[in-house]
């Protein structure tokens, strides 16, 4: 046999245009084989092996019996088999350690070395060890132990690291959950692992707590609570073979699969590959990966196991200023997808020394860009193999498909259709890993476990018995051996793909799409290259109807369901209808042809969108608009002239990735835009307005209604301050009341119920002097607490005093302290004068039953967002922490007054042609049934909403349900009622930290005739709420007076209020978490009040009113109907509105 890379004559010369040509010839009793090849296309060494294998096969065929079957022919020559064995002869040593023990070694060796450097704080190894041990004791006390699983839900934070390590120390296993996951996905995962408790941050608590029995919140105070236990040994029986964590991946049956990784597997993997990846005690690893991604665990645990420092940017910096975050944190090691790597440039990140690329193939241009600058490695592994199994060091000439040699597992290539047959060197085969680093199982899924985690194949015994610690895992990846034993990936044998750096099972998306609508006849999901470069996830649909409107409706229903069920990276970017799917001759779906159709159709669809957007373009008129147009042109690769200021970014082909690029470019230009800005205001004109507002350059500011000092004095001159025991120099400022404040103050003055009381239980050892100091400081920090409500010139004003008498009083309690507290508050309310400041603190002290800290306030001084902040400020001062300066309520009043003109424009347009929908005439009891004085009534019900469309909030769901109920009751289609909103959309930094009553009551208009289906109704309502923006703060009195032609005496007779914050919020004291309880006498409302509260998979509903408005049984009927409609809306996106109204039928 001979091999020629070039040939001067003969038959081979005629074939030299081919990458490989083989010539066979008989020479007596032997056969000669010659080959010509292009070394740029195929390695010479592989051709030598191919010729050798050809000769071996010819010999076998020549000596075989005539009745022998081809399947029995051995394809791999002994010499080649020996070489494969040699490549797989070495396994990393099996570690018998636990992850947290390895990390503790670094604490003992270098206790003061940095372990965590995060945007929200830093920790040394000693501090991390102390804090995590403290939390671990709490977890053990709560019942955590081996094989018990704890979901973790955090934003990017140092506390994620503490939580992971704490669970491991307590003997349990953790699951990292990204806070952006849909609630349905979180619920499924919690159900699959039988989770009893979870650990979250304060802000993520509501995302996960509905699905478990117990929630543990981590922050400074929580951890300090158990600090005394930090030096006590943890006693549990967890061993190396116990579960350490579970990582969930996409599943073909419609539900995710959770792979169990043990301590032994992870420690073996880390010791086998960490140094190759550049890990050491000098490593400062960027924790960039989403918590849905196995890489996030490697970035954290492997770094700590090597004594390095985990560097954690904020969520905002991670998506909008990545290069700056890397520099700020001093990160020198990063694990990134090639998509993310494209967002940064070597000159912008001089601190980076090592970049590992994984999750998707690196691009050739990136190798040339980065290989000369850093240690660049392409990695290969999976969630089931404890992260990385193989990696290749890349130089400028490296192939993009090379992933190097396996180091933490043996790698066998088997026939794609038969795992019991190995394939020869150079032939494509399914990757099967063997070794101690492989996961245990898919939890609760024995069928999928048996398919993937297999017993030793037949050929393995023939090569020698595997080690007892070895497991086998079928990856589904197709690869070939290169001549040196390294791997070259070639694709998948199934429908699993990598998109946006994540592993996605196309079957799971297809399954959920089929369930979305009966109008879907066929569905297929695949990846096509769109616009010449971008891999795009596309959902192809064959829809039963050929009517355009029905096709669009069905696509919207499918999109809505996928948004609500799947993580965002699994939701297709495009939905394309086809009359029929292409098929192969054998009748199978022709996915290759489908991808080609997708590429063509998607590019055409994108071009059509751009052409439509390009008609009658308005060009920039300001410098900011011109800068934004330049940036869009650069990022979207479009001519500037084809981008108008009113053109939608997403209509031009923008997506979340290109939005990140836009934000990064705007930062370089000195602007302050965020991803949320682009999704909210997706035009250049809209973004320019956002930027102008931030820069304080909005022209023509309307006058402020917040009074200056001279105006305050003139108002005060109109009353006799002596009558209310005030001096002029007692007054700091005077402000008008918002509409809601005025309603609350007027109602409380008329009823005599002037205040609410908030109670916090405290241990007796609290230092009373420090408590008093903290309470008084809260009055200094929040001016609204020093307000009293005075009627001046025919209306109420809030008069803020410099200080108030007795802001803190200690009261000795007797008897049962809970009963004493209740009777004390009732008696105090009766003695409260209408003109005196409402807010004050009481400390009820009992000799044997501890203490209760009580805050008395008017509802006009707080809302659900701000009330916990007051208590938090007390304990910040108690613990000696300096509270950051926050915007105050007067700032809020001043800001919303400047928005008045623009807000009036919005509401005038939104309410044009509207009429208030009056419900009371249809439900009021007869005159003879009405009592002389109205009495309070309330009725409750629960709606079961196991899932709802993604991006559709509970408030939108109930808003739509109430509109349908009103329509069924009144036979009207254009419905308008009152709705309570937070009033916190104004562009004020840290507006969520303002203490005061920002609530507002605005009209909720729902024109049901504008919507065909439930999906339309919900998305339309959600869009309308988003459009409202900071117009939500316009005073309700101004809306009725300036934006409608309603009669002056008209008022809302039904008001909807969705509460999405805790009714008993937690506050962290120096002794741990405690709930704030409310003592309040319910006011008898002059209107119908509908309240909804989210409770995980249920929605609590309540109808509140008085006996002059409706009877008790009518209230119960209303709330039951509302629950029924809410359930219908959440479960039937393709149901028509008209049929739902008909189904509701007669209400009373």
Automatic annotation (TrEMBL):
State the SUPFAM superfamilies in the record.
Acetyl-CoA synthetase-like, ACP-like, CoA-dependent acyltransferases
Among the GO biological process terms of this entry, one is:
secondary metabolite biosynthetic process
Q: Which GO terms describe its molecular function?
A: ligase activity; phosphopantetheine binding
**Domain Carrier intervals:** 619-695
- Highest taxon in the source lineage: Eukaryota
Pfam families from the UniProt entry: AMP-binding, Condensation, PP-binding
Keyword vocabulary terms for this entry: Ligase, Phosphopantetheine, Phosphoprotein
> Can you supply one Gene Ontology CC term for this chain's record?
cytoplasm
Q: Which NCBIfam families match?
A: AA-adenyl-dom
The protein in question is named Carrier domain-containing protein
């Amino acid at each position: 046999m001979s091999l020629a890379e070039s040939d001067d004559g003969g038959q081979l010369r005629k074939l030299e245009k081919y990458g490989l040509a083989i010539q066979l010839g008989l020479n007596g009793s032997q056969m000669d084989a010659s080959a010509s090849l292009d070394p740029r296309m195929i390695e010479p060494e592989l051709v030598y092996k191919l010729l050798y294998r050809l000769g071996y096969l010819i010999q076998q065929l020549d000596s075989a019996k005539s009745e022998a079957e081809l399947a029995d022919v051995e394809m791999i020559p002994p010499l080649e088999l020996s070489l494969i064995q040699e490549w797989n002869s070495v396994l990393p040593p099996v570690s018998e350690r636990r992850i947290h023990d390895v990390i503790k070694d670094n604490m003992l060796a270098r206790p003061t070395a940095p372990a965590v450097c995060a945007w929200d704080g830093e920790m040394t190894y000693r501090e991390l060890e102390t804090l995590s041990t403290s939390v671990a004791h709490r977890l053990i006390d709560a019942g955590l132990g081996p094989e018990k699983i704890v979901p973790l839900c955090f934003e990017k934070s140092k506390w994620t690291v503490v939580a992971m390590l704490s669970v491991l120390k307590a003997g349990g296993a953790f699951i990292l959950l990204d806070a952006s996951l849909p609630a349905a996905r979180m619920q499924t995962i919690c159900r699959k692992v039988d989770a009893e408790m979870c650990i979250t941050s304060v802000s993520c608590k509501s995302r996960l707590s509905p699905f478990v029995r117990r929630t543990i919140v981590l922050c400074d105070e929580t951890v300090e609570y158990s600090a005394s236990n930090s030096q006590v040994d943890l006693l549990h029986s967890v061993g190396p073979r116990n579960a350490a964590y579970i990582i969930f991946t996409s599943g073909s049956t419609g539900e995710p699969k959770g792979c169990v990784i043990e301590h032994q597997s992870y420690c073996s993997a880390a010791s086998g590959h960490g140094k190759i990846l550049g890990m050491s005690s000098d490593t400062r690893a960027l924790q960039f990966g989403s918590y849905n991604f196995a890489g996030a665990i490697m970035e954290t645990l492997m770094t700590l196991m090597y004594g390095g420092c985990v560097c954690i940017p904020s969520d905002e910096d991670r998506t909008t200023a990545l290069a700056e975050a890397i520099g700020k944190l001093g990160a020198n090691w990063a694990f990134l997808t090639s998509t993310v790597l494209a967002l940064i440039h070597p000159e912008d990140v001089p601190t980076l020394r090592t970049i590992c690329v994984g999750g998707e193939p690196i691009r050739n241009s990136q190798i040339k860009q980065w290989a000369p600058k850093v240690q660049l490695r392409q990695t290969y592994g999976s969630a089931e193999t404890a992260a990385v199994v193989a990696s290749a060091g890349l130089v400028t000439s490296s192939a993009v498909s090379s992933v190097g040699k396996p180091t933490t597992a043996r790698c066998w290539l088997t026939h794609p259709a038969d795992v019991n047959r190995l394939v020869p060197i150079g032939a494509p085969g399914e990757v099967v890993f063997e070794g101690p680093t492989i996961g245990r199982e898919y939890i609760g899924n024995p069928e999928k476990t048996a398919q993937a985690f297999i017993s030793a194949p037949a050929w393995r015994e023939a090569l020698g018995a595997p080690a007892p610690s070895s497991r086998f895992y079928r990856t589904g990846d197709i690869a070939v051996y290169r001549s040196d034993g390294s791997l070259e990936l070639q694709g998948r044998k199934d429908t699993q793909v990598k998109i946006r750096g994540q592993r996605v099972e196309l079957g799971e998306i297809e399954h959920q799409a089929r369930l979305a609508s009966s109008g879907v006849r066929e569905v297929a999901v695949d990846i096509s290259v769109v616009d010449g470069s971008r891999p795009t996830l596309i959902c192809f649909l064959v829809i039963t109807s050929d009517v355009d409107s029905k096709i669009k409706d069905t696509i919207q229903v499918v999109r809505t369901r996928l948004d609500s069920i799947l993580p965002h990276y699994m939701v297709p970017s495009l939905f394309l209808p086809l009359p029929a799917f292409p098929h192969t001759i054998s009748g199978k779906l022709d996915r290759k042809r489908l991808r080609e159709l997708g590429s063509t159709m998607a590019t055409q669809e994108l071009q059509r969108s751009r052409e439509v957007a390009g008609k009658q373009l308005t060009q920039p008129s300001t410098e900011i608009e011109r800068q934004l147009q330049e940036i869009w042109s650069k990022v979207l690769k479009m001519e500037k002239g084809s981008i108008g200021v009113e053109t939608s970014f997403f209509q031009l082909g923008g997506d979340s990735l290109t939005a990140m690029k836009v934000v990064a470019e705007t930062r370089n230009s000195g602007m302050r835009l965020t991803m949320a800005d682009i999704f909210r205001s997706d035009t250049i004109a809209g973004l320019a307005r956002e930027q102008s507002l931030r820069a304080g350059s909005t022209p023509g500011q309307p006058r402020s209604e917040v009074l200056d000092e001279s105006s305050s004095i003139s108002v005060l001159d109109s009353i006799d301050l002596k009558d209310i025991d005030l001096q002029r120099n007692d007054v700091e400022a005077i402000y008008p009341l918002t509409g809601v404040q005025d309603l609350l103050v007027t109602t409380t003055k008329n009823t005599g119920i002037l205040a609410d009381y908030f109670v916090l239980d405290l241990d007796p050892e609290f230092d009373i002097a420090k408590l008093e100091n903290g309470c008084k400081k809260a009055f200094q920090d929040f001016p609204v607490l020093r307000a009293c409500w005075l009627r001046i010139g025919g209306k109420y004003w809030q008069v803020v005093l410099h200080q108030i008498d007795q802001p803190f009083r200690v009261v000795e309690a007797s008897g049962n302290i809970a009963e004493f507290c209740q009777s004390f508050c009732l008696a105090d309310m009766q003695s409260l004068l209408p003109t005196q400041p409402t807010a004050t603190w009481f400390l009820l002290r009992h000799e044997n039953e501890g203490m209760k800290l009580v805050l008395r306030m008017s509802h006009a001084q707080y809302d659900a967002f701000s009330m916990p902040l007051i208590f938090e400020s007390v304990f910040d001062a108690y613990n000696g922490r300096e509270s950051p300066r926050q915007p105050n309520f007067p700032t809020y009043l001043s800001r919303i007054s400047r928005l008045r003109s623009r807000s009036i424009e919005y509401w005038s347009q939104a309410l044009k042609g509207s009429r208030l929908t009056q419900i009371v005439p249809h439900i009021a009891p007869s005159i003879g049934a009405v009592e002389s004085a109205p009495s309070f009534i309330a009725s409750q019900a629960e709606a079961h909403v196991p899932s709802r469309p993604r991006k559709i909030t509970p408030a939108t769901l109930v808003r739509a349900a109430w509109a349908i109920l009103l329509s069924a009751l009144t036979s009207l289609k254009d419905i308008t009622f009152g709705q309570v909103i937070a009033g916190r959309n104004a562009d004020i930094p840290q507006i969520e930290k303002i203490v005061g009553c920002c609530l507002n009551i605005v009209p909720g208009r729902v024109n049901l005739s504008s919507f065909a289906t439930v999906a339309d109704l919900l998305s339309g309502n959600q869009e309308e709420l988003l459009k409202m923006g900071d117009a939500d703060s316009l005073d309700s009195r101004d809306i009725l007076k300036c934006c409608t032609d309603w009669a002056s005496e008209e008022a809302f007779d039904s008001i909807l209020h969705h509460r999405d914050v805790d009714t008993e919020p937690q506050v962290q004291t120096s002794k741990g978490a405690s709930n704030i309880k409310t003592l309040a006498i319910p006011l008898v409302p002059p209107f119908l009040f509908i309240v909804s509260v989210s409770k995980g998979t249920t929605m609590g509903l309540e109808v509140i009113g008085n006996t002059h408005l409706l009877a008790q049984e009518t209230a119960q009927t209303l709330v039951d109907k509302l629950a029924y409609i809410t359930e219908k809306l959440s479960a039937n996106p393709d149901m028509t509105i008209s049929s739902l109204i008909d189904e509701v039928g007669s209400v009373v």
